């Protein structure tokens, strides 16, 4: 699955069908392309993954919220105003030096939209869905994440009943950053487990 980001950038059969259907509906006047673009943009840039980044940042700075998040992620996330379809029954997973969590949906593409936005194309791809279970360490390496052999990798299979949010490790040298600045270090991939939070020392 080397070059995963590039290998799955082309439109698949289902995406082509969706595009064709969208064109037909637009020509017949059933949908407004501008309104559709606004909906997509909302999920991609406004609803998530910025929402998830704010959840993680709050957990990094607020011990009480952090405990609540790991006890009842659905309620803790909803308290910040992030809830809705695909956001029910959330479970938060804490990455540590000893354990790294990786999320996949082996059957389809269940994904916590309210906190992460729309799922990336590679998340829905068959190679990721199958190999993440068989060779999680190799998948992480493809994403540029090389963990010590002592770090255990746990793979979580997202379903229609339960979806997961990974809380990445807080980068070092961020003690002086406020919550907003910390949220800027949290990436979508780090909340799936295929990435790490950015380090301000390496990524200005």
Structure at a glance:
The chain is mostly helical and 204 residues long. The chain has helices spanning 4-7, 13-27, 33-47, 50-61, 63-71, 73-78, 113-116, 121-124, 126-134, 136-142, 179-183, 188-192; strands at residues 90-94, 99-104, 152-157, 163-167. 47% of the residues lie in helices and 11% in strands.
Which characteristics define this entry?
204 residues; mainly alpha; two-stranded parallel sheet; disordered N terminus; single chain; 47% helix
Task: Describe the secondary structure blueprint for this structure.
Blueprint: H1 4-7, H2 13-27, H3 33-47, H4 50-61, H5 63-71, H6 73-78, E1 90-94, E2 99-104, H7 113-116, H8 121-124, H9 126-134, H10 136-142, E3 152-157, E4 163-167, H11 179-183, H12 188-192
Parallel strand pairs: 1-4, 2-3
Helix pairs in contact: 4-5, 9-10
How many helices? The count is 12
Q: Tell me the strand percentage band.
A: 5-15%
Biggest sheet strand line-up: 1-4
The strand count comes to 4
Coarse structural class: mainly alpha
Range of helix content: 40-55%
**What's the SSE pattern?**
HHHHHHEEHHHHEEHH
Q: For the terminal residues, how far apart are their CA atoms?
A: 30 Å
Average pLDDT works out at: 85
Shape: globular
Largest sheet properties:
2 strands, parallel
Unreliable segments of 5+ consecutive residues? 1-11
Instruction: State Rg.
Output: 18 Å
């Amino acid at each position: 699955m080397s070059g995963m980001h590039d290998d799955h950038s082309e439109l698949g059969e289902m995406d082509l069908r969706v595009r064709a259907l969208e064109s037909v509906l637009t020509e017949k006047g059933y949908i407004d392309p501008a309104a559709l673009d606004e909906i997509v943009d909302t999920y991609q840039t406004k609803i998530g993954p910025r929402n998830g980044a704010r959840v993680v940042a709050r957990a990094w700075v607020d011990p009480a919220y952090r405990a609540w998040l790991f006890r009842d992620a659905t309620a803790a996330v909803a308290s910040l105003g992030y809830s809705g379809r695909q956001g029910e029954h959330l479970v938060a997973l804490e990455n540590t030096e000893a354990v790294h969590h990786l999320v996949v949906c082996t059957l389809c593409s269940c994904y916590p939209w309210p906190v992460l936005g729309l799922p990336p194309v590679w998340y829905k791809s068959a190679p990721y869905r199958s190999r993440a279970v068989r060779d999680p360490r190799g998948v992480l390496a493809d994403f540029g994440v090389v963990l010590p052999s002592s770090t255990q990798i746990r793979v979580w299979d997202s379903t229609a009943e339960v979806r997961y949010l990974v809380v990445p490790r807080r980068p070092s040298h961020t003690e002086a950053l406020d919550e907003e600045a910390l949220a800027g270090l949290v990436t979508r991939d780090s909340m799936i487990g295929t990435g790490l939070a950015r380090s301000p020392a390496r990524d200005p």
